[in-house]
Amino acid sequence: MNEILAVIDKLALFTFIVFTMLGAGLGLTVQQIWEPLRNPRLVILSLLTNFVLVPLFVYLLLQVVHLSEPLRDGLLIMAVASGPPALPKLAQIVKGNVAFSVGLMMLLMLGTIFYMPIVLPLVVEGVQINSWEIAKPLLLMMVSPLVIGLFIKAKFAAIAPTIQPILFKLSNTGLLLGLVVRLLIHTNDIIGLLKTGAIFVCAVFIIFSFSVGYLLGGPGIDTQRLLGVGTAQRNFAAALLVGTSNFDDPGVVSIIMVTSILMMVIVLIAGPKFTEIDQATYVEIKQVEV
User: Fold this and answer.
1) Please, which residues have CB within 8 angstroms of residue 234's CB and are 6 or more apart in sequence?
2) Can you state the angle between helices 69-80 and 98-123, rounded to 10 degrees?
3) What is the pLDDT of residues 58-68, one digit of tens each?
4) Residue 156 burial (CB count, 10 A)
5) Which has more pLDDT, 205 or 5?
6) The pLDDT value given to residue 47
7) Which of helix, strand or coil describes residue 129?
8) Measured at the alpha carbon of residue 17, what is the angle toward residues 35 and 100, in degrees to the nearest 5?
9) Model pTM?
10) Most buried residue, 40, 153, 159, 248, by most Cβ within 10 Å?
């Protein structure tokens, strides 16, 4: 049964990522993606948040909170893996800047490809990482559909509005199906991590990541929301690849999967509600200023 669910999970993940990126390409232009990245302050803070502050915080947290070595290794892998494949979809959920989400995702993905092989062996013993092995699936599943979508939008703009809603429905189906299947597969892992208290460490990891991303993502609310969720949701695809290829202990993969599930569940549940509160606060501030 678990083997069947694992196959469904992979198909759901493939559907979610590919159709999300294809749909994002159909709705944007290269200029729109590039424009937010022309803000040096925002780019520098995004890199600082994802590649310095979050990994450093998790490393220091694990010096204080004692977990088993497999759980510790899994969390460190997640901490240094940035550029979540789901970022464009997360931007839609929290009403963030979708164009910036694509540009930021590409920037963080590229950074992760070079960053992980250098930093991870310094904090996790026995890890050997090939940059190309990380880059290959990301390029195939994320960059290629995005480029195809941008090409269709540029050359056949009339059909883009017709295709895009269909792709987003397929993307949403893949997201929800994958989440349900992962919850079924990893129920025992979640229960086990609750017993050890590790899941609370995951929660602290997520809360800190969102908070620092949100606080440094200004001045616009749309970029604050985007950098918040983009920092809290790590690149589980890259983390999973490293975890499965370097470790025999199932605890490493379990903590990676459970953390990624927890990240997605929190965004899906709290994201829309936070957006409402955030927008109401913004309106009140503007009224006071006037």
Assistant:
1) 78, 79, 81, 82, 84, 209, 259, 260, 263
2) 140
3) 999 999 998 88
4) 11
5) 205
6) 93
7) coil
8) 15
9) 0.78
10) 153
Structure tokens, 207? 């809360």
Q: Which two tokens stand for residue 270?
A: 């709290």
* Residue whose token pair is 């993606």: 33
Mean pLDDT, residues 138-150:
82
CA distance 155 to 253: 43
CA atoms of 224 and 165, how far apart (whole Å): 26
Give the CA distances from residue 62 to residues 68, 86, 197, 206, in Å, rounded to whole numbers and listed in that order: 10, 26, 13, 14
H/E stretch holding 246:
helix 236-246
Q: What's the mean pLDDT in 35-44?
A: 84
| Averaged pLDDT, 194-210 | 86
Q: Write out the two tokens for 157.
A: 């703009």
**CATH number, span 2-289:** 1.20.1530.20
Q: Letter for the amino acid at 185?
A: I
Which pair of tokens denotes residue 166?
Answer: 């269909």
Question: Would you put residue 82 in left (φ > 0), alpha (ψ -120 to 50) or beta?
Answer: beta
Instruction: Give 144: exposed, middle or buried? Use CB within 10 Å, 0-12, 13-18, 19+.
Output: middle
d(CA 178, CA 188): 17
Helix 98-123 vs helix 54-64: angle between axes, to the nearest 10 degrees? 40
